[in-house]
Design a protein that fits this description.
about 90 residues, about 0% helix, flat, mainly beta, eight-stranded antiparallel beta sheet
Amino acid sequence: MSRPKWNTDKTELTYKDGSRWLKETFNKELNLIKRTTSWGEWTEHEYVDKGKAKGRIAVIRNSEGLVKKFSYDASGRLQSNKGTEEMI
């Protein structure tokens, strides 16, 4: 893996892993929003924005069409450890 390099506003990290380049985009809380590769693969993450589960992962989507959703109870505990998977 090459040495990671941040852009000037510290929202994107770029590095090489083997023969492919990766770019990771983060929000202001440093949660990973999107990871893309030089091979055209991508993964997007969405986070819970309110309640006791705020900041926890809510949805993961990837370039293969897989969507994985996670649900939390009122106290912020994960309801299922695997989430539900769907193809889009």
